[in-house]
């Protein structure tokens, strides 16, 4: 059984590797995250959110989120709709164009990762990667 110090070191190494992997994939595929992209990604996973909910989830001020939504709306990436729970309130939803852009960026990143796996990993490494992914699933 590992000591607390070993566990802490393992956790830090995992954090560094995941951060490095994410940055490397984004830079290599030119799909770098921005406040707009992070907002679109949240909407994709939550379907419809108010500006207040988006601000809370992103950890930004309401006014900052309002500006981001205005920019996204000007690009036809989000739409405002009446809330199903409260007809006086509005929620923000993704446009079809935004859904397509998110899907394309995700596919680009997956393709890059698949190419790197094919170029650099032998079967044993792939098996190890599968085991590592299983462990990550347990953590989540």
Automatic annotation (TrEMBL):
Protein's UniProt name: Transcriptional regulator
Entry-linked SUPFAM superfamilies: Winged helix' DNA-binding domain (SSF46785)
Entries under InterPro entries matching the protein: HTH-type_Bedaq_tolerance (IPR052526), HTH_MarR-typ (IPR000835), WH-like_DNA-bd_sf (IPR036388), WH_DNA-bd_sf (IPR036390)
Pfam families in the record: MarR_2
Organism: Pantoea endophytica
Domain of life of the source: Bacteria
Residue ranges occupied by any HTH marR-type domain in the UniProt entry: 7-140
